[in-house]
Amino acid sequence: MSIQTVGFVGVGRLGLPLASALLDAGFNVLCTARGRSAELVERGGVVPGDGSVRAVADESDLVLSCLPSAAALRETIEGSAGLLAAEHVPPLVELSTLAVDLKSEIREKLVARGSDLLDAPVSGTPAMVAARIAVIYASGDPLLHDRAQAVIKAMSPHFVYVGEFGTGTKMKLIAQYLGLVHVTAAAEAMAYAELSGLNLQQVTELISASPGAVSGQFKIRAPLMAAGQYEGRLVTVDLVLKDIGEVLSYGTEVNAPVSLIKVAERHFRRLEVDGYGSADPAKLFDAFVSQARQGVQ
After folding, report:
1. Helix (H, G, I), strand (E, B) or coil at 184
2. Label partner for 92 (CA 20 to 30 A): which of 38, 140, 194, 294?
3. Which among 124, 12, 128, 126 has a CA at the least distance from the CA of 64?
4. CA–CA separation, 185 vs 178, rounded Å?
5. C-alpha span between 90 and 69 (Å, rounded)
6. Residue 151 carries which DSSP code?
7. Are 71 and 55 in contact (CB under 8 A)?
8. What 3-state class would DSSP assign to 66?
């Protein structure tokens, strides 16, 4: 049976462009009455019934969730008006970066109701999602993947099916490890340039054109650092720390090397303590320059 109506839970910074892509592809999109749902409704989305997850589930062929925390996922599934409270429990495509064990636990509860869960975290910023260049790593039952494939492809033409359940999250954790270390390195390099008296705009342009030196995170955030723009439009320090926590937790579980991500965590934790939890990670550049001028390491 083809999927026509898609429920979306978590219309936030990342969820809004994902859900908007579904509307652009011609799907009927239902959402809960939370987050940026009003913006989605303006684009053609619908808030059914009382705006609860249960109301969304009852009218959807498939539900997607894009959530900021484990607590939010548990409430979405197990809350009094959550997915499991619905008369009809459709399959769930879980797009968040959350622990494999948690997703496995949720999957078991859905399977007990005759449903299933596809682990499919998104790798990319909201701007990358809007530009259709983000990647989705889908993993789980291949039959569910085949059924949901058109929906996932509408959000991410670059999506890939990576195999058995949980593989998607593991792949995303590697991407997060590299991305967050690269953000930290970019901030240090730009601080190095600033303290050397270089023109930051020129540094941004020349390094961005150097294949051996540039990273995706440098290209995204060096311009923000050069312009002093730290308002957290793409992602925030708080969300970075959540993802670092997931990377460290699973890395410790499998005894993986995590020394570099621990360095990044220390720097971002200092930003959080200083009151910049809602800032873009590019704020790290400002902190490095300030600390250097005060003689702090």
Report:
1. helix
2. 38
3. 12
4. 10
5. 22
6. H
7. no
8. coil
Give, rounded to a whole angstrom, the gap between the first and last alpha carbons of the chain: 59
Q: Judge contact between 153 and 181, C-beta under 8 A.
A: no
pLDDT tens for the chain, 297 residues long, are 579 999 999 999 899 999 999 999 999 999 999 999 999 999 999 999 999 999 999 999 999 999 999 999 999 999 999 999 999 899 999 999 999 999 999 999 999 999 999 999 999 888 889 999 999 999 999 999 999 999 999 999 989 999 999 999 999 999 999 999 999 999 999 999 999 999 999 999 999 999 999 999 999 999 999 999 999 777 899 999 999 999 999 999 999 999 999 999 999 999 999 999 999 999 999 999 999 999 876
* Whole-number Å distance between alpha carbons of 201 and 184: 19
The single-letter code of the amino acid at 124 is G
Q: What is the pTM of this model?
A: 0.92
The answer to whether 247 touches 176, Cβ cutoff 8 Å, is yes
Q: How buried is residue 217: exposed, middle or buried, by Cβ count under 10 Å (0-12/13-18/19+)?
A: buried
